[in-house]
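hiii so um. not sure if this is the right channel but i have a protein structure encoded as tokens and i wanna go backwards to a sequence. like what aa goes where. can anyone help
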């Protein structure tokens, strides 16, 4: 049995067409790296993370996997 292969897999270097939905503030470098190492696209959520900590978290993911991953960063207003 062969796995499902899509053009997106080829474009991003994935084994499986699976993308992790970054779980907001509960995202972690370990979860992101685990998804990527398993052949999907891990995603590190950074919407409420300070910029210096984003750098630390990205470097941590890089230390845990050599596979591709995404950084999901959205700018949200803190007040209206």
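sure thing!! here u go:
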């Amino acid at each position: 049995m062969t796995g499902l292969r899509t053009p997106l897999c080829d474009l991003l270097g994935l084994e499986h067409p699976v993308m992790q939905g970054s779980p907001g503030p509960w995202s972690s470098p370990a979860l992101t790296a685990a998804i990527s190492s398993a052949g999907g696209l891990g995603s590190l959520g950074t919407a409420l993370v300070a910029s210096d900590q984003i750098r630390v978290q990205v470097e941590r993911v890089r230390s845990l996997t050599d596979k591709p991953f995404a950084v999901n960063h959205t700018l949200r207003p803190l007040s209206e």
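oh and The beta strands are 42-45, 69-72.
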